[in-house]
Each structure stands twice: as structure tokens, then as C-alpha cells.
Design a protein that fits this description.
The chain is mainly alpha-helical. It has a domain at 68-221: Four Helix Bundle (Hemerythrin (Met), subunit A) (Up-down Bundle), CATH 1.20.120. Helix content is 75%, strand content 2%. The protein has 10 helices and 2 strands; from the N terminus they run H-E-H-H-H-E-H-H-H-H-H-H.
Length: 240
């Protein structure tokens, strides 16, 4: 009986502390933000499929014409993986968020805004490379890199808000976690910019291949760089 009363008293104190912490600051739970974000990401990732169009069919040349559309397939895979990583990062972040403030809502909307732009450069890259016009290829790849970098910059802002306001996080979350995530996003912005520079200065298709590989790494580390250490331990042979 005493333990039950003590537990209730502790919960009451935690509630009081939480109320004082957000007193005068409009805040809400994460439910609506998560539902809205999932809806936006679902629409954006579906829009990518609209660029997978059948080629004009000449008798006996369907296979060759399908193979000629390889830039479209590669651009689709690159953007699909990127949006999938956005969703994984988003899910991992919201598992650690307790409440939302107006500033965090705006930061989240910034991530969604940048993500929603991805189908546009995806279509430009696939069409430009398919036309085999090097100047247009470089412009399209450069634009894709700009949008890709911009998306990571929006993540940097999102993670920065969470790092500066640890009161928004679940009690079990290490306050330094989002500092590491902010650095991870900064590296991502640099890598996309570098990939775009490679495509503009050398071979655009090479940049497209890098755009496919980058989301794979960021998908593996969606819960932070510490996830790499966990995976490494699993692969180590047991000590004898």
C-alpha cells in the first residue's frame, strides 16, 4: 500500500515538473506530427513511381528500349532509398521525443518540405541522362545534389532544436544523442554536395551511383553512429 502511494506521489511530482517546464510554452504530443509526416512521406514516395513510364515500343526491340531507360531506374532507386531513410530517421527521432513545440513543428515541416521536392530532380536526372546531353546531365545532377544537401540541412535544424531543448525528449534519452545526429546530418549535406560536384566535373552517371549508395549508409545508422558499434559486436567471434 505504501509503495503504491509512493509511486502515485512520484508520478504527481513528475507531472508537476513537466507542467512547470512547459508553462507558458504551447506544446502538444507527437501523435499528430507523426501521422501528418507519415502521410506526406507516403505521398512523396508514391509520386516517384509516376516517372516509371513504358518506352515507345518498336517491334522486337522492347528489351533494348527497357534497358535504355536505366537512368530512370537508377534515379528511382536513389530517391526511393533516400525517402526511406528519411522515414527511418524520422521514426528513430520521434521515438525519443516526448512533446512538440511550435519551433519543433516548424523544423519538422522543413524536413517534409525538402523531402517533397525530391520527385522533381529525380525526373530531371532520369530524363536528362536518358537524352545523353552532357550539359543537361550536369545541370540535373547538380540540382539533385542541391536538393539532397538541402534535405540534410533541414535535418540539421531539426536535430539542433532537439539538442538545444532536451526538455522535449523522453527522460531515458541521452542529451548528447542529437548532437551526434546533428553532426551526422552535416556530413550528409557535405557528401551530397561532393557527389554533385563529382557529377558536374566528371561523369554524371557516377554521381547518380553515389546517390544510391549514400542512403544505404544513413539507413544503417538511423539510430546514430552507435548502431555501427552494435553491428560490429555482433559480427565479432565470441571470446574463448
Amino acid at each position: 500500500m505504501v509503495s503504491v502511494k509512493a509511486e502515485q506521489a512520484q508520478k504527481g511530482e513528475e507531472t508537476l515538473v513537466t507542467r512547470r517546464r512547459y508553462e507558458g510554452v504551447p506544446h502538444s504530443d507527437t501523435g499528430r506530427a507523426e501521422a501528418f509526416s507519415d502521410g506526406v512521406l507516403a505521398i512523396v514516395i508514391t509520386l516517384l513511381v509516376l516517372h516509371l513510364k513504358p518506352p515507345p515500343i518498336d517491334a522486337g526491340r522492347l528489351l533494348a528500349q527497357l534497358l535504355n531507360q536505366w537512368p530512370t531506374y537508377l534515379a528511382y532507386v536513389a530517391s526511393y532509398l533516400y525517402i526511406a531513410v528519411v522515414w527511418l530517421n524520422h521514426k528513430a527521432a520521434f521515438q525519443r521525443i516526448k512533446v512538440m513545440t511550435r519551433g519543433l513543428h516548424w523544423a519538422n515541416l522543413g524536413v517534409l518540405f525538402s523531402t517533397a521536392l525530391l520527385p522533381w530532380p529525380t525526373a530531371l536526372v532520369s530524363e536528362a541522362i536518358a537524352e545523353a546531353n552532357p550539359p543537361d546531365d550536369r545541370v540535373a545532377v547538380g540540382l539533385y545534389a542541391i536538393i539532397g544537401s538541402m534535405l540534410w540541412v533541414s535535418w540539421m535544424i531539426f536535430f539542433h532544436v532537439l539538442f538545444r531543448h532536451p526538455e522535449l525528449l523522453e527522460d531515458s534519452v541521452d542529451e548528447t544523442f542529437f548532437h551526434g545526429e546533428r553532426l551526422r546530418a552535416f556530413v550528409g549535406a557535405l557528401l551530397y554536395a561532393a557527389a554533385g560536384l563529382v557529377g558536374v566535373l566528371t561523369i554524371p552517371a557516377l554521381a547518380l551511383a553515389i546517390f544510391v549508395l549514400l542512403p544505404l549508409f544513413y539507413g544503417i545508422t538511423s539510430h546514430g553512429y552507435a548502431q555501427l558499434q552494435v553491428l560490429g559486436r555482433r559480427r565479432l567471434p565470441p571470446k574463448r
